[in-house]
Amino acid sequence: AAPLTPGEWMTSHVLPLRELVTLATLEPQAVAWATLDQEHEGASTEGSTRSFQLYSRDIQQAPYAPTANPHKESRTLFSFPELPYSPVELLRRWEDLRTAHSGFIRPLMQGLTEQLNPRARFLFLAQALEGLHAETAGEALVPVQQHRAKRKEVLRAVKDAGLDKKWADRWLDLYGRFSLAERLTQLLDAVRSDVERVADVGLVPGDIPEIRNRLSHGAEDYTWQALRPAMRVMSAMGAAHVLRMLDLPLDRLPMVFSQD
Fold it and tell me: How many beta carbons lie within 10 A of that of residue 16, not counting itself?
């Protein structure tokens, strides 16, 4: 493989690692500093390695001196010593996952970890779950052509029965796409036993599709307290699906969400 430039190395490996730690803690993480070591080919003596410090807007250039916090350390979705495979393999899987499912991972990470107002957080979480379902199940149960053929058949039957064909033509969906309610229900079913330990699964789909539509169109605003239960269950669903897609155990999910 061709060698990576420092910028490519940051983008391909360092920043994904930062995202991985952010996912584990559900808190924003920063890169304190980064150095690259260059070894002279064939050299084995001391001093044959040169170090270069990297500067980038993604690097804080600040000392890293965290304080010990056993309580906080236990609140992670996974820990390296308990991985079912190596940390290098986890990073590789994460890089593959964020590339293959960017429509899920990108808004999920924003909704889970960034400091946002309740409207933005809710919309990012709903977008992430909708994106995951679209990427894994597609846009509809059957192809559009098949749906439209069935639609035409139904409209013909409505007309033959002397019913309001104009109304049916107006309101019967042209594409047969999954609704957000259907997507959320199917996603919850896949992780229900894990999510119900930390959130109220009775809220799914509930009013989430209607709230999403109102927030998207600016028709109504909601307080943090009003949105918090739905955001909690969507957050837990998103985290649970990530862990499953990475083949990681979900036993630490309550450690993170129990005190959220």
Answer: 18
What's the gap between Cα 201 and its chain centre? 18
Element (H, E) at 39: strand 35-39
What is the tens place of the pLDDT at every residue in 50-80?
888 888 888 887 777 767 666 666 789 998 8
Give the mean pLDDT of 184-207. 97
Tokens (6 digits) for 31? 């890169």
| Residue 30, φ and ψ in degrees, nearest 5 | -125, 155
User: What's the helix, strand, coil split of the chain in %, to 5?
Assistant: 60, 5, 35
Token digits of residue 170: 């107006």
Q: What is the enclosing helix (H) or strand (E) of 10?
A: none
Using alpha carbons, select from 238, 191, 181 the residue that is nearest to residue 212: 181
Please say if the pLDDT value at position 42 is more than 70.
no
- CA–CA dist 109, 124 (Å, integer): 9
CA dist., res. 156 & res. 164, Å (int): 11
8 A C-beta contact, residue 215 and residue 120: no
Residue type present at position 9: W
Decide: 76 and 252 in contact? Cβ < 8 Å.
yes
